[in-house]
Structure formats: structure tokens, C-alpha cells
Specification:
With 289 residues, the protein is of the alpha+beta class. It has five helices and 17 strands.
Length: 289
């Protein structure tokens, strides 16, 4: 699948401010699941300097710094991405590795320790939910993951939530609802509790083609011996294939935030708006639709 992406993010500050350095984490990933074919990032006002860097999680990031004052900041990303994985289960887990917790080689255990750590929030109800999903689905990592997807999809409603931040796993259960980012964090927590390394992913999904516009999306990836990092989307109840475009992944959702930065200026009231367009095509050379 080929995707042409246009993502415009705009901040209006209401008065002139001085922008501190910003990290723009909106570069589509290039890996075994997708290929970045073209990329252009325009920043207004024009930065005094900019540089592509890799963050601590290995994500491609544009670092930009500024001089002078401005009343706004606009970032426009245009990219063409080819998604490569139409079968989310094209891997083999050997019999000795098909158990929980996921068996890891010593080097893998060291590298993946941050993706197994429980961080913040209450976990009692989440632990109970994870145990129930395990009883429902089975003892292998893949069986557990699919059972957990079904458990969340049946019991937790996906909603649009404009408030900043991410709900704790137990708060998601108490409310019975959450945004995609909340459900992704809940899925991560449940996987970590049974010994599956998990990380948070931000990016895009095609959404409803009839609507024309879409929003940033979030899901989770888990590490499977023989399969590597594989995506699971609890808000849609499915394993990730070629309809998702990943931008950034991190052990902590805060480290996958799309734009990170600050400003200096008294009395400024920032307002955020964005517009995201995805155009899809099945084959190269075909018009996007």
C-alpha cells in the first residue's frame, strides 16, 4: 500500500513569543514494515537552524532552533510511505519460545528492560484483566495478545478525548472508555504484567475514507521472538498490517510525542490546530484516491 501524507500543525500564541528549540517527531519510520519514499518538512517561521537527529529510542527527529520573536509556529510534513506488511502474522515462534513470560536472551533482556517496566498509575484492576485475558486466550504470546485485543474491544469504548495526558491503566477500566492513546497504554501495561515487552507507537491510520480528514493515532507494539516488534491496535481490535503508518515508538508514551518544545512570553495563550490528509493507492504509478 502506498500513502501520500500531508500533516499541518499550527500553534497560535496570541502575541509575540520567543521559541525555544523544538523536536519534531513526525518523520514516518523506515523499517521492516514500511519504507519512507519521500519527505519534506516545512517550518514557519524559518528556523535559525535545523538538523535531523535520532532520539534515545532510535526515532528519526527534526531538531529546530529559532531566533527572534513570532506569533505562531507552523509545521507542515509531506511524505510518501510504502507499507510492506499485508500479513501481520508472517513470522514463526519456535515451540520453546511460545510461552509466557517471553523468553529472552541475555542481551535482549538488557535491551528490552525499559519495555517491561511498569510505570506510574494503579495496576490492580489491569493485572486482573490481564489474567482474565490469559485464561480466555491461552498461554502463548500471540494467543494472549489476540485475547487481550478482544477483551479490550468488547469492554472498553474508544472515544475522542481532547484533554492532555494519558489515563492510567486502571482509570481506563474504571471509566470503561478512553482515547486510542489510553487504550494503547493499557494494552502495553497488561502485556508487561505477563512478561511481554511492549512499547507505545504514534502515527496514522487510514480511518474512515468517507470523512476525508483523519487524526493522529496511537497503538502498541510487542516484541515476539521470531517476529520482532509487532503492532496491535486495541482501539480497532486488530493486529497491525499495512493500513497503519508508524512515526515514533518509545517505552514511555511521552517520548513519542509529535512536537516537543517551549516558548517564552508573558500573557501568551497557545492554541493548537492541525489538519491531516492521507491519500492511498494500491500500486505505484496509480493515481492516489
Amino acid at each position: 500500500m502506498f500513502c501520500r501524507l500531508t500533516h499541518v500543525t499550527r500553534y497560535e500564541y496570541g502575541r509575540s513569543v520567543f521559541l525555544e528549540p523544538h523536536l519534531i517527531r513526525l518523520v514516518p519510520r523506515g523499517d521492516a514494515a514500511q519504507r519512507l519514499l519521500s519527505l519534506d518538512i516545512a517550518v514557519d517561521p524559518l528556523p535559525a537552524g535545523r538538523a535531523p537527529v535520532a532520539d534515545a529510542a532510535g526515532n528519526a527527529v527534526l531538531s529546530a532552533w529559532f531566533s527572534g520573536e513570532t506569533g505562531h509556529l507552523a509545521v507542515t510534513v509531506r511524505a510518501v510511505v510504502e507499507t510492506l506488511r499485508d500479513n501481520p502474522f508472517d513470522y514463526l515462534i519456535e515451540a520453546g519460545n511460545a510461552r509466557l513470560p517471553v523468553p529472552l536472551a541475555p542481551a535482549e533482556a538488557t535491551l528490552l528492560a525499559p519495555y517491561l517496566a511498569a510505570k506510574g498509575g494503579s495496576w490492580a484492576a489491569t493485572d486482573a484483566a490481564a489474567r482474565q485475558a490469559g485464561r480466555d486466550g491461552g498461554a502463548t504470546p500471540q494467543e494472549f495478545s489476540m485475547a487481550l485485543l478482544a477483551w479490550i474491544y468488547d469492554r472498553v469504548k474508544t472515544v475522542v478525548r481532547h484533554e492532555p495526558g494519558i489515563l492510567s491503566p486502571d482509570e481506563v477500566l474504571a471509566r470503561g472508555e478512553g482515547a486510542c492513546r489510553d487504550l494503547a497504554a493499557f494494552f502495553m501495561a497488561a502485556c508487561r504484567l505477563v512478561g511481554i515487552p511492549a512499547r507505545f507507537v504514534s502515527g496514522y491510520h487510514e480511518g474512515d475514507p468517507e470523512l476525508g480528514a483523519c487524526d493522529l493515532h496511537a497503538w502498541a507494539e510487542i516484541f515476539l521472538p521470531g517476529g520482532g516488534w509487532r503492532g496491535f491496535d486495541p482501539s480497532l481490535g486488530l493486529a497491525v498490517a499495512d493500513r497503519h503508518i508508524a512515526v515514533a515508538a518509545a517505552a514511555d508514551p511521552r517520548d513519542a510525542a509529535p512536537i516537543v518544545g517551549a516558548f517564552r512570553g508573558d500573557g501568551a495563550t497557545p492554541r493548537l490546530s492541525h489538519d491531516i490528509r492521507l491519500e492511498l493507492s494500491d500500486r505505484p504509478g496509480q493515481p492516489f484516491f
